[in-house]
Amino acid sequence: MNSNPNPPKCFHRFFRWYCHPRMRGYIEGDLIEVYERNFKTLGKRQADWKFILDVLLLFRPGIIRPRKPYQHLTPYGMYKSYFKIGWRSLLRNKEYTLINIAGLALSITCCILIFVLVKHHLGFDDFHPDKDRIYRVVTEQHRETVSYTNSVPSPLGMVLRENHTYGEKVARMFQEANAVISFERDGEKQLIKEPNGFAFTEAEFFDIFNFPLSKGNWESALTEPNTAIITERLAQKYFGDQNPIGEVITYDNFLPFTITGVLEDFPPNTDISPEIFVSYSTMKDFNPWLASDNAWGGINSGMYCFTKLRPGVSPVEVEEALAPYVKQHRPTSKNVHHYKLQALSDVHFDGRYGGAMEKSDIGILIAIGIFLLLTACVNFINLATAQALKRSKEVGVRKVLGSFRSQLFWQFIFETAIIATFSILIALIAAYALVPYVNNFFNTQIPVNFLVDGTLVLFILGLDILITLLAGCYPALILTGFKPVAALKGKLSFQQLGGFNTRRALIVVQFAISQVLIIGVIVIMNQMRFAKQADLGFDKSSIVMVKLGSDSLNTMNVLKNEFLRLPGIEKVSLCYQAPASDDSWNNSIRFGTDAEEVSFLTNMKLADADYISTFDLELLAGRNLMPSDTVREVLVNEAMLQSLGITSYEDALGEMVYANGGTMKGQVVGVVRNFHDRSLHERISAALITTASGMYSNFAIKINGNSVKDTLEEIQSLWEEQYPDKMFEYSFLDEDIAKFYEAEDTLLKGIQFFSFIAIFIGCLGLYGLISFMISQKAKEVGIRKVLGGGISHIVWLFGQEFVRLILIAFLIAAPIGWWFMSGWLQDFEFKITLDAWTFVVAIGSSLVIAALTVGYQVVKVAWLNPVISLKTE
């Protein structure tokens, strides 16, 4: 051996021929360790000889019988062999295995939750027969701007049914939300507030929608006045196990309904929210104007019209047929209606008409799921290729022993499949545990039935295959592409190990995604802080809105005076609503001597003379309202004067204002500073404040902030003395205003969560890259330290690589983040500006995260004794 240290090439060919028929597959014993031991004692070239001879001797007939080659195994035996080898390999590399499983399990958990969430929303109201022919009639209101409402004038449904034959079925429904329902149970009167309220409903509604009865029959369910049907859930809630048919429920202690039927509980994926349906003919007792056939003058929120079109009828035909009714019944109105048909499949996804979410939100959720999955697969690739050097000799041995590249390829694919399968099992357990939190977070009712959902099972199986191929193919191709001699000698180039450039590109993509999410979090947080701290033009702190219990003016005034006697109460006002409220009354007015109505809507704020002082509204000119029970005087805001083209406050004083078709008129006696009457999404409306006791529905009570709890108890006690049969309802104004931004708060929490996931997975990618770099530069670090290189010099040797990658990622992420968040801010009329600090914080956060991720490993290798890294040289 020593006389001829260079084995001839023909010997290699002979060796491969000798091993080919018998040695394909793997062998027992760790030949790599044998080779490395000989390498240390004999040197490179002699070790090559010794290793080959050891293999020949080891497998001579009669010494050890080799395993059956792969081509002689059954498919089951071959896959079993693949599994055993992969399992052993993963156990030998526990850190690598755990990191990959953690990253994949985290991203798969998010993917499963996103899938069930998207599936839930896409399935809304898809269980109705002929759902493609069901439409809701909605209204576009054209004035200075176009506004959208899901309601219509109440006579429109009657006209569509009686004057046209387009609809196979037409039904009207008026929903009254936040209804207080009373009933008797076990001889005692019960009061329950139903947030979804009840709905006056025409019987044809249940011919359009598939909501079957479990008790009663449709022939008598809603045919008579003052009858109602309720869901099984409410029947159990109100009456327990007793039969609810014939029982009486009462709305607000004045409108009774006899139950004539019980509906099966609604599925969670429907936008039909009320669970109490009452006969439409009873609405004349609730609101005579709304129930009349001539109520074309305005649109009352909650009045809906549904139709199931006949086969072959186009929605455009119906819209054209409804157009003439606008001029016929609203000839002089500046608020021009356009009645449109909205497909049932669009009801859930059209935010203009009150849809729960936009279709673009579905796309964003899907994109986030794809990004997280790709990020996890990128990490897998980084870590797998970083392990390539450790496994190169194993590949070399297998190839020398006759294994085909395809066999090695599937071996590594099986290892990936094992990791992916374990990750999915962990993800399923995590997703199952997290579904209740997702339901609470997104206000959904996603059922926890993963194993019986065939679509989800197919999705998970497909996800397993996709991850295995995405994450496993590239590392498998890299690992199986090694040349045996180079692999056994450890002389593999960076390119053969997967290359730095590919790894750099993947890390840049990960950091770019993370930085875009960080920019989004910063912008949304700043906008939410701005919205909650902005000067709204009125005082919202320590103000409690208490619902009135009676329309009696004398009772209201008596209770108001009783409240003012309490030491914890500073001021009290009777009003329709607070200055900023979702519940507003928009009206058309005439100003001064003008014969025609103005072209803009006016937000009517109906309140007594204490409204200004209670909410600390600022008078810019004139005086406050004089106490009155009817409309005599009005206050207007700056936005009203701007819309009228009046530049001087004094010019407006003394002018007459005519509202509600001229039935409400008063003289302008003062001008108040602009106040935000809605969220910061919308511009400040032209507003009018006047007295009208018949329209008051709330007490606005300014309380002393030092005794809130005691004062509330005293308020409730006084209120219940006046209204013993009513339910006491109150809310804090600042909390009501905060609800304007519930969607944004949910979005912020969602982006924060997904940002954390993306950053965490990105950190795993950094771990893979630094592992690869350290394995390749260990000897270089030792040489630099021997030549006098300091710790800081060694740290910067690695750190500069990541700084460059983060800067490149920032150059990609900054314009993308700016573009996305600029578009998001366009939904706000009042908003922050995107400044440089947003982007400075984003890149600074990335640098800190990167430093924390790789710092330990870099410092560890920088402190390593150079003798250890150079001892094999």
From TrEMBL:
Its main location: membrane. This is ABC transporter permease. Residues 367-481, 753-866 form the ABC3 transporter permease C-terminal domain. It is found in: Cell membrane. Keywords: Cell membrane, Membrane, Transmembrane, Transmembrane helix. The lineage of its organism: Bacteria, Pseudomonadati, Bacteroidota, Cytophagia, Cytophagales. It comes from the Bacteria. InterPro entries: ABC3_permease_C, MacB_PCD, Macrolide_Exporter_MacB, Permease_put_prefix. It holds the Pfam family MacB_PCD. It is a multi-pass membrane protein.
